[in-house]
Amino acid sequence: MESTISYQVVKLDDHSQNDILNSLNIALNGFHSNSNEHVLKIVIFLDPKLENSSFKKSIIQSIHSCFQDAVPAVTIIYQKPLDAYLTLEITQVKSDISQIRFKQWKGINYAIYTNSLASYYYFGCVHSVYENDAEHSASKVFDKIHKMLLHENLDWEHVVRQWNYIENITGFANDTQNYQAFNEARYSAWKSYKWQNGYPAATGIGAGAGGIAIDLIAVKEMNNSSVISLPISNPIQIDAHKYSTNEIVCSESEPEKKHTPKFERAKALQFDNFHSIYISGTAAILGEKSEAIHSSSKQIEITIENIEKLISNENLIKAGLSKLSKGNLQLLRIYIKQTKDLETIKKRINQAYPNIPAIYTQADICRDNLLVEVEGVYHI
């Protein structure tokens, strides 16, 4: 069952990089030596200044040395952790090792977990540095991912969760905003699909380096499986893929490039008696308008309200889910534009969601006037 999947956050902040690497090796060996749980994916949050450092290379070497022929999906995100020097997000599954396969395709590590209902594909990051512009780079990434999906007899409509990391997300190149250029590439890659079960849940967030980077989770149901994939809308937000052109940053030279962001506010996987909900990146947007544009304290309140409305049983039943009980958040990521807002936002998150593994990083949000964005995983 999907409920066997869990998450841990590891934060390392020793006195030196060597100390951190030693602590990292101890942590990795602890995960690897646990015969009851197996690591499917590791996400590393790293200061962009360390993009080309020997420290980064040592982290990758540590992962490969530890896991050897069972290397999980690995993603490095160039966002500075705000409450540690190095932060890791670990996705693991409580399962017999025979249900898990670790594979690699053209340098991309990924893990496949299969149970009686479905196969879950955790893909590591695919990236492309900026060449001509963000649209060109994003198109290369989408093309490579599509080939990787086809290699596993999957297609885009199997993707349930996607993360899109965009260097200088609100910056411009050739008269086009980088985020909008990414949206154009996504539209081109996906326009031939029907998306009968809705788009993936997604986050489009800034990064300090790395060009365009995407990682994702895909799910393929077994024949005659009872697994249902459902898009979840928010009653107080317009679906992002239905935004008006008023909220699209169009290019003056190419005004026809005004396609909306193709993602759902959340995506639910419904099993017989269990539900897993991927909460997309959520910010202080009501309807389609940014709110409280000068106040991080007000924005985090609106963001929490949006999340609560989104995952309320009333809203989930409206979306088509059934057999609901009280749910629990499993994991949070909190992206903060200005480091000075960390304590205000962290205090409020701890009040609203105590004892939930949470990651805090510095990142630009997809709109210049947004100061914080929150995503998560919710189990019922």
TrEMBL record:
Domain Chorismatase FkbO/Hyg5-like N-terminal: residue ranges: 120-218
Recorded superkingdom: Bacteria
Record-linked InterPro entries: FkbO_Hyg5-like_N (IPR049368), RutC-like_sf (IPR035959)
TM region positions: none
Protein name, UniProt field: Enamine deaminase RidA (YjgF/YER057c/UK114 family)
Organism of origin: Aureibacter tunicatorum
